[in-house]
Recover the amino acids of this structure.
């Protein structure tokens, strides 16, 4: 009961979860994967399939139940689903023993191709920076447009001053500061 409750709570509290088959991975490789997932705010755990099925049913994730066959581990993420997918994708390139079976993102079950596509997304920080840049660009253009008349006026006045100086024979206008 305690393990089923733990799995259900992790599934309900996670932003994303990925089911993966870990057949053929050594203990050291699993430890390395867990270490790589920690900075992404993710956790990788192996549970008995019968307990995981029961927890998935209790959490209302009945679409995940058929995927819980064979040696299956669950990777949970609470903050960055793309980060979780990136770490798993990178690890599967190096270790053929880990195969993504399915994922659960934003309340819906996704196939391995979608998990792979999620891995190709930029990080959360990059997406936020792009959004802020997109929001800032129109304001920057507006400021430049509003500054243009004053800038153009100063340029026109400089040109007029240069023309007057040239027509007066190079002597500075009365009251004007000498040219450096």
């Amino acid at each position: 009961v305690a393990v089923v409750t733990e799995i259900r709570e992790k599934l309900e509290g996670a932003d994303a979860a990925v089911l993966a088959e870990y057949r053929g991975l050594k203990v050291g490789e699993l430890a390395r994967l867990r270490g790589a997932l920690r900075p992404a705010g993710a956790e990788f755990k192996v549970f008995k399939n019968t307990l995981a099925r029961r927890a998935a049913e209790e959490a209302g994730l009945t679409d995940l139940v058929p995927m819980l066959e064979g040696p299956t581990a669950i990777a949970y993420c609470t903050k960055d689903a793309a980060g979780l997918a990136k770490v798993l994708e990178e690890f599967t390139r190096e270790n053929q023993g880990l195969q993504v079976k399915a994922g659960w993102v934003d309340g819906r079950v996704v196939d391995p191709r979608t998990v792979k596509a999620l891995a190709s997304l930029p990080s959360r920080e990059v997406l936020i920076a792009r959004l802020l840049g997109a929001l800032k660009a129109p304001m920057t253009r507006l400021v430049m447009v509003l500054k243009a008349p004053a800038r153009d006026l100063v340029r026109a006045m400089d040109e007029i001053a240069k023309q007057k100086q040239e027509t007066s024979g190079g002597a500075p206008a009365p009251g004007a500061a000498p040219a450096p």
Remarks:
- Strands lie at 16-21, 42-46, 72-77, 99-105, 108-110.
